[in-house]
Amino acid sequence: MDTTHQSASKFMTLERHIIEEKNKHPHATGEFSGLLHSISLAVKLVWREVTKAGLVNILGKTDRMNVTGDEVKKLDEFADETIYKAMDHAGHLCVMASEENEDLLHIPDHYQHGKYVMLYDPLDGSGNIDANITVGTIFSILMRVTNSGNGTMDDVLQPGYKQVAAGYALFSSSMMFVYSTGHGVHGFTLDPSVGEFLLSHENIRIPQRGAIYAVNEGNYNRWEPNMRRYIDWLKIEDKADGRPYSGRYIGSLVADVHRTLMYGGIYCYPGDTKNKNGKLRLMYENNPLAYIVENAGGAASDGKTRIMDLVPTALHQKSPLFIGSIDDVRFAEEFLAVKR
Ligand code: AHM
Ligand code: MG
Question: Which pLDDT score is estimated for 70?
Fold first, then answer.
């Protein structure tokens, strides 16, 4: 029998990983582990529907009905509700907020209220669903600041550096679950035959510098001149290997950032003349992805300020995003700051 660590790690389930992480902290109550477990179940339920996306017209409307029994929900609404319902009753959370809902999502009074807060983007990139392109769920976990009862806006509107965990599920050729609690970033791949996430990417580290950039270049004429110059510069064939940066843009943030995490480089969504702060949401997208990328050795900035230092004032506020390899993000910040 092969008893090496490598062989053992092949069978590291997400469940076991969460428990082993918890055991490293003697005072941990297990509440946090329970929370992560509920999230992993929630995203599996979403994945089950996402894999059927193209079949709805063929299979009819029987599988995804609303409570009144007759209508198929849009997948992003389905994901939103599924996650809420998977998380509302376990006693870990005091409040939630989702990109799909204008207001806070309260925990029903008859369920226990816990000490954590969860913010999520239920189905990031959902505009791509009909083309079978990778989408995902992004989540951010904070510790409440109020003492008890229903969570409030004060619990939710905390800067990103206060996050105690964050992660995402990626619905792609396989389903991945990537998370961090501040001790490395770990990636798990779902084995659909047993329904378990297995550790496939232990302690992910983003390359210090990459050679890929991702940006919606259709907005080029709306960018400020330095942003245009920066992207022009990436295309010049003067890089170390005599090649320009390669451009890759899926248009699904979670997928673009995942690729950036794996291969290095930079993802940019700057502000422009139409949208001063770009289009990405600080609380549901930028903060959790910044937490993951920083914990993997990378960086995330709004062009000037570290994303996780931005102090939020509104639930759905937007911020520009420059995220990826540390050298690439720092260079972008320097480039954008040059007075010409
Ligand atoms: P969504 O959360 O409603 O899907 O919107 C965010 C998405 C991101 O996933 C993606 O990176 C971005 O919008 C694409 O925007 P654009 O079409 O302007 O490039
Ligand atoms: Mg989104």
Answer: 41
Domain membership of residue 166 as a residue range? 3-201
Nearest CA to ligand 1 atom 2: 124
Q: Counting beta carbons within 10 angstroms of the beta carbon of residue 228, is it exposed (0 to 12), middle (13 to 18) or buried (19 or more)? A: middle
Helical pair 287-295 and 253-263, crossing angle rounded to 10 deg: 10
> Is 181 in the same domain as 287?
no
23 & 169 share domain: yes
Number of domains in the chain: 2
pTM score, whole prediction: 0.92
Which residues are 111's β-sheet partners? Answer: none
Catalytic site includes residue 124: yes
Q: What is the mean pLDDT of the chain?
A: 90
Q: pLDDT tier at 58 (50, 70, 90 boundaries)?
A: low
Catalytic position from the list 70, 102, 109, 241: 70
- What confidence tens digit (pLDDT) does each residue in 29-44 have? 778 888 999 999 999 9
100 is catalytic: yes
Query: Ligand 1 pocket test: which of 220, 253, 281 has the largest number of ligand atoms within 8 Å of its C-beta?
Result: 253
Which strand (E) or helix (H) includes residue 123?
Answer: strand 116-124
Q: State residue 122 phi and psi, 5-degree precision.
A: -65, -40
Say if residue 115 is in the same domain as residue 243.
no
Q: Are residues 123 and 176 in the same domain?
A: yes
- Whole-number Å distance between alpha carbons of 196 and 9: 14
Cα distances from 112 to residues 28, 92, 148, 313, in angstroms, run: 19, 8, 10, 28
Q: What is the pLDDT of residues 190-239, one digit of tens each?
A: 999 989 999 999 999 999 999 999 999 999 999 999 999 999 999 998 77
Which one of 138, 170, 201 terminates a domain?
201
Count of alpha carbons within 13 angstroms of residue 166, beta-carbon side? 27
Q: Which candidate, 152, 78, 128, places its Cα nearest to that of 254?
A: 128
Predicted pLDDT at 162: 98
263: CATH: 3.40.190.80
CATH number at residue 182: 3.30.540.10
Residue 207 lies in a domain: no
